[in-house]
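Retry 2 of 3 after timeout on previous attempt. Resubmitting structure tokens to design endpoint.
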């Protein structure tokens, strides 16, 4: 049995994803948020899964990652893009890599532009696109290293060539929507449909994006590790537990 959960952080609108292999008991989390750490641990326990990997799609600027806390508590490894600007990871991922976890195997696609080191992950017919491709939008270009033409190329040359029916699970919620398809985004996303590479940057924006937080960027450059004075297990387990799958 394969377990799959989409989890939303209400404060930032960020999505995290839990994938687990029931046969082997191995699991991974994509883009976990530190305030939701207790929720992830409870879900892993409930499903009888052991966390092997925390994967980041990119250096997040709007919330603190749970990667370091989960590594400390579960022994999981943290895997990030080789060009992500994130230090202290256990494994660096590059375009074309594959990452296995029990019966799960994810393919790694480099999709830079929102940040220089953005990755997307493809698992079967499901694409985890981070903030590269959002539903009806794309990630903002004003984060460190944002590059409009690179983002346009990533979406149109790497993602829009996937089969129409590929499910798109983005890094953030927009307009209450949780999932889309490659075909739908190719045909209806107003930032890309009928838009040229040169015209893209002027149109690209994400009006629903959360503010850029300097503290989050600083922590996330070290897998979400915060200064000792900022960090306590108590503060983590008091986080918002209202998100559902
Ligand atoms: Fe982002």
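Retry 2 succeeded. Sequence:
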């Amino acid at each position: 049995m394969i377990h799959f959960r989409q989890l939303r952080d209400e404060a930032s609108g960020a999505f995290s994803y839990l994938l687990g292999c029931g046969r082997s008991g191995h699991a991974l989390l994509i883009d976990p948020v530190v305030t939701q750490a207790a929720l992830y641990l409870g879900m892993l326990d409930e499903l009888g899964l052991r966390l092997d990997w925390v994967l980041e799609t990119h250096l997040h600027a709007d919330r603190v990652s749970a990667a370091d806390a989960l590594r400390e508590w579960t022994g999981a490894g943290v895997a990030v893009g080789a060009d992500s600007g994130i230090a202290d990871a256990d494994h660096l991922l590059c375009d074309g890599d594959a990452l296995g976890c029990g019966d799960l195997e994810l393919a790694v696609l480099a999709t830079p532009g929102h940040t220089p080191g953005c990755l997307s992950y493809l698992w079967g017919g499901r694409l985890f696109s981070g903030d590269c491709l959002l539903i009806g939008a794309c990630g903002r270009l004003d984060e460190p290293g944002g590059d409009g033409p690179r983002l346009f190329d990533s979406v149109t040359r790497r993602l829009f060539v996937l089969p129409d029916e590929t499910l798109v699970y983005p890094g953030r919620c927009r307009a209450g929507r949780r999932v889309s398809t490659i075909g739908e985004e190719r045909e209806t996303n107003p930032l890309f449909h009928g838009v040229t590479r040169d015209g893209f940057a002027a149109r690209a924006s994400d009006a629903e994006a959360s503010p850029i937080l300097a503290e989050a960027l600083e922590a996330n450059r070290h897998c979400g590790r915060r200064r000792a004075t900022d960090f306590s297990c108590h503060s983590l387990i008091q986080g918002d537990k209202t998100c559902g799958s």
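Attempt log closed. Residues 148-159 form the longest helix (12 residues).
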